[in-house]
Amino acid sequence: MEHIKLSFEKTLNFVSKEEIFKFKEESQKHLTALQKGTGKGNDYVGWVDLPSQITEEELNDIEATALSLKEKVEVLVVIGIGGSYLGAKAVNDALAHSFDQLNTGDENPLVLYAGQNISEDYLFELLDILKDLDFGICVISKSGTTTEPAISFRLLKELLEENVGKEEARERIIAITDASKGALRTLAVQEGYKTFVIPDDVGGRFSVLTPVGLLPIAVAGHDIKELVKGAKSMQEYSSATAFEENPALLYAATRNALYAKGKGIEILANYNPKLHYVAEWWKQLYGESEGKENKGIFPASVDFTSDLHSMGQYIQEGQRTIFETVISIAKPNHTVTIPKDKDNLDGLNFLAGRRIDAVNKMAELGTQLAHVDGGVPNLRIEMPQLNEFYLGELIYFFEIACGVSGYILDVNPFDQPGVEAYKSNMFALLEKPGFEEETKKIKEKL
Ligand SMILES: O=P(O)(O)OC[C@H]1O[C@H](O)[C@H](O)[C@@H](O)[C@@H]1O
User: Fold this and answer.
1) ipTM of this predicted complex?
2) Residue 308 pairs with which residues in a beta bridge?
3) Which of 198, 97, 99 is nearest to 139 (CA)?
């Protein structure tokens, strides 16, 4: 069985193997703490066993719900923010036809997203386009009280009820939320929506392998059983493999060794734009898990080769505080070769007959060598292929490494207290009832 691979050799000009391997015992101890639920934030480690715990019955229920939605709607709007949409968006974008929004012959509903911003123009245009379409809604919020999705849901629910009537709207709305708490649970019970539960011990950014990610992924037509199988394969592999060969432990150890050397920014790079949202998901995972107590590596991302023509200059010659982690896909899913041209004005006939991917791979290798020469350590994650199974492996790899890495940093990787600051300022500024004191104080600052 092939797994995703991690190589850290191109960091060894900057940290020694000993400096990485000094985390061996510690990282193994942290992995055990995650598995046994004995570390910091241990009431939020339900995700560790998710791939092996999720039952065939649960997966069948998600698939059946997806199927009944598919029969009714041409568009499914997933309403959620942060961990309540990034995992689904990451997997759906990675697996979808790049031009899915045009007519590509895909019989599955188009999945759109809302509630991930409060842009009036975005919502206007979404409502405008939906008014003439058969759509359904999957509203997702762990807390059930987040402002952004709640605003979008108000608007879309109203439109749907107007379009198809309250009864039919009820059949087209799925709510995914806490088992008992929060406004969304209350509303779902009141309206009689089909619901799925986000387990108490799984935080939003670790929830892609719950119905939060799985339902929208199934609606888009992807194989959630394969995705879970891949995650399970990585769960088993990372728990059974010695540190020296263990990609998740080595990733956690290497990034902490680099951080100790002043490399405070990690850039996740890809050479396939389908992975753009995998990086967005990864940024929330690592940013919210590690960025606290004035500590943590800042997670950034780039899409190569596009961004080599914009951010490439900085990476090559800017402040030497960065390291890169490149996700490389070994084998593309399609074949395109470069044609011969009789005039050869662009001078590219030497490439005629060769695969586009061969050029992409040399761009990747050339960039890695240039960046290492320029002072940027490089880690490399190789996925054998871009499919459900290896995305499942990648997701679990990043999650488990994140837990271990957070513990090495000695923070609680499973809370996000800092996110509240903007929310309370926003409510104070909007004069929300109950915020009178905060409103008074904030107005003095303006
Ligand atoms: O699922 P929800 O409760 O609506 O939360 C959605 C997101 O917003 C919060 O403010 C947190 O910072 C995120 O960790 C979370 O994923």
Assistant:
1) 0.98
2) none
3) 198
Q: How far is the CA of 81 from the centre of ligand 1 (A)?
A: 6
Pairing outcome for strands 265-270 and 298-303? parallel
pLDDT at 1: 80
Distance CA 274, CA 14 (A): 31
How many other C-beta atoms are found inside a 10 Å radius of the C-beta of residue 52?
12
**Does residue 205 have its Cβ closer than 6 Å to ligand 1?**
yes
How would you label 157-182 residue by residue, b for 16+ Cβ within 10 Å and e otherwise?
Answer: bebbbebbeeeebeebbbbbbbeeeb
Domain boundaries, the chain: 5-42+227-409, 50-224
| Domain 5-42+227-409 matches domain 50-224 at the CATH topology level | yes
Give the Å distance between the CA of 84 and the centre of ligand 1: 7
Q: What is the mean pLDDT of the segment spanning 57-68?
A: 98
Looking at the CA of residue 83, tell me the nearest atom of ligand 1. Answer: 16
- Pairwise CA distance, residues 249 & 30, whole Å: 9
Of the listed 423, 440, 441, 443, which one is catalytic?
423
Residue 17 annotated among the catalytic residues of the structure:
no
Residue 147 Cβ < 6 Å to ligand 1: no
Task: Report how far residue 83's alpha carbon sits from residue 286's, in angstroms, rounded to the nearest whole number.
Answer: 12
What pLDDT digit, counting tens, does each position of 292-311 carry?
A: 999 999 999 999 999 999 99
**Is 29 one of the annotated active-site residues of the chain?**
no
pLDDT of amino acid 181: 93
**Closest atom, ligand 1, to C-alpha of 80:** 4
Q: Is the CB of 416 under 6 A from ligand 1?
A: yes
**Ligand 1 centroid to residue 218 C-alpha, Å:** 22
CA of 151 to the centre of ligand 1 (A): 15
Domain 5-42+227-409 = CATH 3.40.50.10490: yes
**CATH number for region 50-224:** 3.40.50.10490
Give yes or no for residue 84 CB within 6 A of ligand 1.
yes
Do residues 81 and 213 make contact, with C-beta atoms less than 8 angstroms apart?
no
Strands 5-7 and 378-385 turn out to be antiparallel
Answer yes or no: is the C-beta of 116 below 6 A from any ligand 1 atom.
Answer: no
Chain segment 103-145, per-residue pLDDT in tens: 777 789 999 999 999 999 999 999 999 999 999 999 999 999 9
Per-residue pLDDT tens digits for 391-409: 999 999 999 999 999 999 9
> Ligand 1 atom 8: the closest Cα is on which residue?
82
C-alpha 142 to ligand 1 mean position (Å):
7
Supply the pTM of this predicted model: 0.98
Q: How far, in Å, are 68, 148, 156, 186 from residue 193 at the CA level?
A: 14, 20, 15, 10
